[in-house]
Every structure is written in structure tokens, then in C-alpha cells.
TrEMBL record:
Annotated transmembrane regions: 12-30, 36-55, 62-83
Function statement: Part of the binding-protein-dependent transport system for D-xylose. Probably responsible for the translocation of the substrate across the membrane.
Protein's membrane topology: Multi-pass membrane protein
Taxonomic lineage from the root: Bacteria, Pseudomonadati, Pseudomonadota, Alphaproteobacteria, Hyphomicrobiales
InterPro entries (alphabetical): ABC_transp_permease
Coiled coil: none
Keyword line: Cell inner membrane, Cell membrane, Membrane, Plasmid, Sugar transport, Transmembrane, Transmembrane helix, Transport
Protein name, as recorded: Xylose transport system permease protein XylH
Domain of life: Bacteria
Keyword Cell inner membrane: yes
Cellular location(s): Cell membrane
Native source species: Neorhizobium galegae bv. orientalis str. HAMBI 540
GO molecular-function terms, A-Z: transmembrane transporter activity
Length: 114
């Protein structure tokens, strides 16, 4: 958080963003940029909710973001099962992403590739 407060909801935002991306691109077949934009929008919305709750209720940010962590984790699991029928979604990687990652991986120093 910008005000120097503690935000622990990041622990559930990373899986939620990943699942949103996987559902948008892998399950529904939208382009990669749409999945990235949707995941970023989710992060903005949850961050806004955290900030408003901390400011308006005067509850410590640790407590607010702890509640948000559990809420987002529960929503991620339940919505992924509701939408896709499973807790995992397969995503096929476009060829340009494979080319970029291959170029990056083979340009790393040899010690990092072990």
C-alpha cells in the first residue's frame, strides 16, 4: 500500500490473477492481452477495496488485507470450479512467447541453467 501500510492479500492475488488469466485465455480462448488486462483490472479493484476499507473503517490494514486474502482465495477456488468445472485450466502458449522464453533461457549464464 502506498501509505506504508501492510498488505498481505498479495498471497491470494497472485493465484487469482493467474486463474483469471487462465480462464480468459485457456478456457474462453481470448487473446493473451485480454487475459493480462483482466488480471490487472482484478488487482486494481481489490487494491481499491482494500484502500477504501482501511480509510473508511479505521481498521488496521493487516486485518483488512487478511480478510481480503481469505475472501479472494475462496472466490478464486469457488468461481474457477463454477465456471470451468475444475480447479485447473490448461493454457496453450502462443509460439511467439515460446520463442521469447527460449531466447531468454539460452542467453542466461551457464550456472543459472543448472
Amino acid at each position: 500500500m502506498i501509505a506504508g501500510e501492510l498488505d498481505i492479500s498479495i498471497g491470494s492475488m497472485i493465484p487469482a490473477g493467474s486463474m483469471i488469466f487462465a480462464i480468459i485465455t485457456g478456457y474462453y480462448g481470448f487473446p493473451v492481452w485480454a487475459g493480462i488486462a483482466t488480471a490487472l483490472l482484478l488487482g486494481i479493484i481489490v487494491g481499491l477495496i482494500n484502500g477504501v476499507l482501511v480509510l473508511k473503517t479505521s481498521v488496521p490494514s493487516l486485518i483488512v488485507t487478511l480478510g481480503t486474502l481469505f475472501a479472494v482465495a475462496g472466490l478464486t477456488l469457488s468461481l474457477s470450479v463454477f465456471i470451468t468445472g475444475t480447479t485447473s485450466v490448461a493454457v496453450s502458449v502462443p509460439p511467439f512467447v515460446k520463442a521469447i522464453l527460449k531466447r531468454v533461457a539460452f542467453n542466461l549464464p551457464r550456472i543459472l541453467r543448472l
